[in-house]
C-alpha cells in the first residue's frame, strides 16, 4: 500500500497520542518539583541562591533520569525520521508552472569550507546534533570534491614537507582522521575516490587509498577498494598504495592489496 492521506491520518493520530503521553510525563516532573517546593524545614535556607551539592542517592536518581531522557530524545528522532522521509516530498510543479526554473539553477551547493567545518565538528565530538548537521549538508548537496588549502598536519609523509600547505578534499581529510562511518557517508553521496591530495610545492597526487595504506587503516583500505578505488594508482613520484603499506610495515594491508591485484613491480 502506497503512502497517502489515508495512511497518514492514523500516523498523525498516533503522534498526537504519543505527544500527550510525553506531556503527562512532563507533568509528573513538574508536579514533583512543586510538591517538594512546599516542604518546610526548621533550618530553612537564608540564601536561596547558594549552591549545595546533591546527596549521592538523589544525584544518582537524577543522573539516571537525565540520561534516560537524552536516550529517549535520540531514539524518538531516529524512529521518526523514516516516517518523515516517507511522506515529506518537495513538489516543484508550482515552480515549473510559474517559469522559475532559471532561478532554481542559480542555487549553490554547500561550499567545501562549510562541509569541512561540519565534518570536523562531527569527527571531533561524535555528537548527535553534529551528525544531523552533516547529514543535512550531504542531503541538500555539498561540494564534495572541492580542494581546500589547509595547514599541513599529522606525520610527515615519505619525502613530504614538515610544514606548509595541503590541498585536499573532504574524503581525504576524513581518511586521515580515520572515521569509517564518515567515509561511508561520503561515498554514499558520490565523493570522488581518485581526487588527489596535493602538498603545495612537494609530494602530490596522493589519493585516499594511499593515505589509508600509509596510516595503517585496513578497514578503510578495504572500503575504498570495494568502492572502486584504483589499487595501482601512483603519486607524482610513482608511489603506489602497496608501496606505502609495505614501507610502513602494514602486513595485513599488503596481503589485502595483493588479493586485489596490486602490482608488485609498479
UniProtKB/TrEMBL annotation:
- Where, in residue numbers, are the ANK repeats? 204-236, 237-266
Q: Which PROSITE patterns match?
A: ANK_REP_REGION (PS50297), ANK_REPEAT (PS50088)
Pfam families (UniProt xref):
Ank_2
Top-level taxon of the source organism: Eukaryota
Per the record, its GO cellular-component terms are:
cytoplasm
Q: Which UniProt keywords apply?
A: ANK repeat, Repeat
Extract the InterPro entries matched here.
Ankyrin_rpt (IPR002110), Ankyrin_rpt-contain_sf (IPR036770)
What is the name listed in the Swiss-Prot or TrEMBL entry for this protein? Uncharacterized protein
Q: What species was this sequence derived from?
A: Chromera velia CCMP2878
